[in-house]
Amino acid sequence: MTNPSLFVERRLERILASVSKPGRYVGGEFNAVYKDPAGVEVRVALAFPDAYEIGMSNLALAILYDVLNRRGDTYAERVYAPWPDAERALRDACVPLFSLETRTPVRDFDIVGFSLAFELGYTNVLNMLDLAGLPLRSSDRDERHPLVIAGGHCTVNPEPMAPFLDAFVIGDGEEVIGEIVEAYKHNRHASRAALLRLLAAIPGVYVPGLYRCRADESVEPVDDSAPRTIERRLAASLADMPFPIAPVVPVVEAVHDRISVEVLRGCTRGCRFCQAGMITRPVRERSAETVLRLCDELVRSTGHEEISLVSLSTSDHSEIEPLVHDLIERYRPQGIGVALPSLRADRDCVELARQISTVRKAGLTFAPEAGSQRLRDVINKGVTEEDLMGAAESAFKNGWRRIKLYFMIGLPTEIDEDVVAIGALAHRVVLHGRRMGVRDAQVTVSVAGFVPKPHTPFQWRAQDTPEELLRKQRLLKASMRDRSVQLRFHNPLVSHVEGVLARGGRSVARAIEYCWRLGGSFDAWDDRFSYDRWMTAFELAQVNPAWVANRVRGYHEALPWDHIHCGIHRGYLRAEDKRAEAGIRTEDCRIGRCTMCQACDRWLVERDALRAASRNTGDRQ
Ligand code: SF4
What we know:
The chain is built from 21 helices and 19 strands.
């Protein structure tokens, strides 16, 4: 019988000549890991459901690749979604989906691990399973097939993808992946059912096949080995966590062609719309010393000319100023620049950006998120107009001519005045620049439609319909008179589908499958997204998208993601939603007191202190 890798290799040569960006499929990159597959016990295919250049910029996958390949008994390889032209060519030539490193068909791996970073990648997961020659549904796979698992932020509501995956990892993947490999290694000859039960016993692992979905879309276990609630896994500190010091250097230009060092994980600023912030609490930090050491190694191992300090809010790092200063001075002679992708809108951050721009000038982007102070208080975005104007003034003074501002429309309690306030705020920024003598001051305003996400204080809120978002877009456009402000809108139809996929229950899985069968893939790409196809799929699956996305849910209503616990107490989310309604802000617990979200143990300490204080007061009375 022909060696499957050789078969792929031979046919690939012909295929590559006919596809766009053939570099996406050849592998052989600098720092790619090569091992003898016969010399390991467990083989893992790390799969990213989008194009090579998007997946190569995904830090989570790079971390898992490193963690797994540090093990002597495991070999992790990579696989990305082939672009439609390559998919056609692969299907025509009967070549199954294969790994980049050894051209091994994905179906021959022990474990296939998908990264679910965004909902619009779901149809690509199905397409990749099909291209691999694997049955789409977990219930149709058996001992002959690899375990198909998934991690990433979308797993906090796993139900829309539940029928297609054998297990989900909830929380920090690098904490769990080793335990999954061990369970597989020691039980590879066990029955599929027994193996899945073993996985379900690992904290942070959800095995959907051991649960049933009730009529109200809530989920309950049907097997003794399955816990009622799946607690997310949390890396206690970043200090001891391994970090890839020799990541693979892409051969095709990636979205982020640079060194990425994670300096913080988690965010406690408490923006009420932000799922990433809520599900990754508490904040964990890498020391400046460690970051500098990592940067030294990464510069040596990759040859990249830019270092990006990544996190949800990099300027919140406790040593950010000396760290940026040290990095700039250390790498200036080599022409290596520093980038901070997430900057607060204030003068201090612009000062950081100014220092950075002495090596390499980059654009300046701030995210006030809402146009009026009232609405910024509702969403708990701690940015005032004074902060923003201070940041803009500092930017114009330091030579920037154009500033980008990010906003959302469709936020809870929003009225038309809040929408119009977006344009007015941008206009005031331009005027401020002109008054400072910057005649060509310009502002680009990006406006996205708000999607209320699971595990946030707004998880019960209704999403605006696409028609309402469109009306608000028109209202904002009509209110704009200033040619120095450019408006860019996110497609409200895309936001609507994203809302259904993010908030749906297990019934939405049928719609995802229909959409894929109707030709859906690469839905995150504007020219590939088809609203009509999604609407047909929802209809065929008997899913009412408005019922899923555009309806207020009651506090006591069962939610499809209630069995997943991401650290924050449900009562806290409810209290935050009520504070939002009243326009009351909640302070960042890193700066002030613990606000008792229960994501870390500090609330226990504070609760005990409060109890002791009240006992003492009682004693004195
Ligand atoms: S429990 Fe308290 S200190 Fe810990 S993340 Fe929540 S609010 Fe912050």
